[in-house]
Specification:
The complex is a heterodimer. By secondary structure, chain A is α/β, with parallel strands linked by helices. Chain A is built from 9 helices and 9 strands. In chain A, helix 3 crosses helix 5 and helix 7 packs parallel to helix 8. The longest helix of chain A is centred in the C-terminal third of the chain and has 18 residues. The chains are: A alpha/beta, B alpha+beta.
Chain lengths: 228, 419
């Protein structure tokens, strides 16, 4: 599913290396927990997976496609079609209603729209309902007025609509209370399984580690980190 | 469509700022439309007012003042033409008709024109259109008056109503010829020219109300009543100007020269078309200056939009990052900003049209009575529509400035959501 080889990244030519990974492979359907301290390069790794930033050297291969070899527009299209993102800070578009926020990936990817079924709005409502959110009841409230837990579940529904092959989550639970955090993880796993997606979940919170099938410390594979 | 829908939602979310930008663009558009409408209506009004007249003759002054005071009722004559000279010229061979004008009195802000029955027969406006009556008939009695359409409408007159003419052009009051009221004999159909704002009476009527007046005031101890005045010789001693129609236009320059070299008194004969051209030349500079100012005002409105959009980009980085994370390409971000700028411009134009037509409706009576300009509430002309289309294009192009900035920002930021 994911294969990184001899991956090196630094922000500017004279800056020190942020990431230097010899190899990393993630199998299809795997749930990978990547742990590490803040500033350790976790978000940069996710940006490399999404093709948002280009490595100095090495390759990022996802679903057999070498993302690093794609041109800008093709990289963006690949990301839209195959990857769903959940961020730490919820990242809902404040001026869009609940369901429209969930449907955003379908606006930019024909593949995601197609995979969301004949009526993507119904699929959005189903995902929200499964995440414990009643779209009808909440429709009158702007998304910014939802609680933190509710906003994060909306963001997860958005990442999962159209059954992406890869779900990338960047510290999605760090702002949630512990009971909400566990419920959120459980719902996320269910939907990831249902979609047959692969999950890469990065967090500095090692308490989440047992819930995942596989975990690794970024510092262990990153030769550029102080302990790497 | 998705980008346009997002742009509209985003603008709705920032409705206070967007509203101010739209209003600023709207005001600038309304100003340009106003200037353009006044310009075209003024030209049309001037061009349509006199038609089929070969020469306009008045006391010697300038071609433009003569054209303005005689036909457009703007300004005043500095001197008169003696009746004797008028009759001598009117009888000259080759002249088909003449229309004498005697100006100087008014009725409740509308000018009174003393003339003869030839006015209703020979005067033409627009495309050689003849005057027609909406009600009543031409004047028959000394104290009959024929009203222009706007006079009747504004003052609510109907045939047989009495009206009192005031001496001079000031407001009614102490200078009224109240002892010799006129009767409304007829009301002319609307022409869209200064005729609509004119009270027409006979030359004899003008003479009659002034028999007991000298130097703008009633003669003390001399009051001639209306019945007695009918018995008097009411042939005028002087008129203000007259229009000339020739049997053959080939004779126009010869007659013009003859009048301009008239020995008995200094006269001036002008060709209406040539004088109008002189007027256009004079107005052209002012029009160009006004148009330039209007364009700068629109540019200022669009700059205001660009500045507002640029200022908001900092706080919208997170929004752009979110869109990038769900598949938006930098091109989408660019398109979003351009779509917003275009939507703001189109909304500004809509507001501008609203303001323009509202201002037109409110100012029309004032402009009409103060400047004699009839501003039609017609739909935008082709030229105005072309201008509005250019504003949309300019708005969209202006949007490329913040769009490029947002594009570059989104490429640099990627999905790193920053606040």
């Amino acid at each position: 599913m994911i294969r990184l080889a001899e991956l090196r990244f630094r922000w500017r030519a004279r800056d020190p290396l942020v990431l230097d990974i010899e190899e990393l492979a993630v199998a299809r359907g795997e749930k990978l927990f990547v742990k590490g301290p803040s500033g350790g390069g976790k978000t940069t790794l996710l940006n490399l997976l999404g093709g948002v930033v280009a490595p100095e050297a090495g390759t990022v291969e996802i679903l057999g496609t070498e993302v690093t070899g794609l041109r800008g527009a093709a990289r963006d299209a690949f990301r839209a079609d195959h990857i769903g993102f959940v961020f730490q800070s919820f990242n809902l578009v404040p001026y869009l209603p609940l369901v429209d926020n969930v449907l955003l990936p379908c606006r930019f990817s024909a593949r995601r729209r197609e995979r969301a079924g004949d009526r993507p709005e119904d699929e959005a409502r189903r995902l929200l309902a499964h995440m414990g959110l009643d779209a009808g009841r909440l429709s009158g409230r702007g998304v910014v007025h939802l609680s933190q837990g509710e906003q994060q579940r909306v963001a997860a529904a958005r990442a999962l609509i159209g059954a992406p092959d890869l779900v990338v989550a960047d510290e999605p639970t760090s702002a949630l209370d512990s009971d909400v955090r566990e419920a959120f993880l459980s719902l996320l796993f269910e939907e990831v399984d249902k979609a047959g997606a692969t999950l890469v979940f990065v967090s500095h919170d090692a308490r989440l580690e047992p819930a995942f099938g596989r975990s690794l410390a970024l510092a262990d594979i990153n030769r550029a980190s102080p302990g790497g | 469509m998705p980008i346009l829908a997002l742009a509209l939602r985003s603008l709705a979310n920032r409705r206070a700022t967007a509203g101010l930008v739209v209003f600023a663009i709207g005001l600038s558009v309304a100003l340009v439309l106003g200037v353009e409408r006044v310009r075209t209506e003024a030209r049309a009004s001037f061009a349509n007012t006199v038609s089929g007249t070969d020469l306009i003759v008045g006391a010697r002054s300038g071609a433009l003042p003569l054209l303005l005071y005689s036909v457009f009722r703007i300004g005043n004559a500095t001197n008169n033409i003696s009746w004797k000279s008028y009759r001598a010229i009117a009888r000259a061979p080759g002249i088909a008709w003449t229309i004498p004008f005697s100006l100087g009195d008014s009725h409740r802000g509308f000018r009174v024109l003393g003339t003869d029955s030839g006015y209703f027969e020979h005067y033409r406006y627009g495309r050689k259109t003849r005057l027609s009556f909406a009600a009543g008939a031409p004047f028959d009695d000394v104290f009959d008056a024929v009203l222009g359409a706007e006079v009747a409408e504004a003052l609510g007159y109907r045939p047989d109503d009495p009206i009192v003419v005031s001496h001079g052009l000031g407001a009614a009051g102490i200078s009224d010829h109240a002892d010799k009221p006129f009767r409304v004999a007829g009301i002319l159909a609307r022409t869209g020219t200064p005729v609509d704002r004119t009270v027409h009476v006979s030359l004899a009527g003008i003479e009659a109300i002034h028999v007991d007046w000298r130097h703008g005031a009633p003669l003390p101890g001399l009051a001639v009543d209306a019945d007695s005045v009918r018995e008097m010789d009411l042939t005028p001693k002087a008129i203000t100007a007259f229009l000339v129609g020739l049997e053959s236009r080939l004779a126009v320059f010869r007659l013009q020269r003859r009048i301009n070299e008239y020995r008995s008194e200094p006269l001036l004969a002008i060709l209406p078309g040539v004088a109008l051209q002189e007027l256009w030349d004079l107005m052209g500079t002012a029009e160009a200056a006004l148009s330039a100012i209007s364009v700068f005002v629109v540019a200022t409105g669009l700059l205001c939009m660009v500045a507002t959009m640029l200022a908001s980009l900092g706080e919208r980085r997170r929004e752009m990052a979110i869109l990038r994370s769900v598949g938006a390409r930098p091109g989408h971000v660019f398109g979003l900003l351009v779509a917003e700028a275009t939507a703001l411009t189109i909304a500004g134009i809509a507001v501008g049209l609203g303001v323009f037509y509202a201002a037109l409706a409110l100012s029309r009576p004032v402009v009409s009575s103060a400047y004699g300009l009839y501003l039609a509430a017609a739909p935008p002309s082709e030229r105005e529509l072309l201008f509005l289309a250019l504003v949309v294009v300019a708005g969209a192009l202006s949007g490329t400035v913040p769009a490029w900035r947002a594009y570059a920002q989104s490429v640099a930021d990627g999905m790193t959501a920053r606040t």
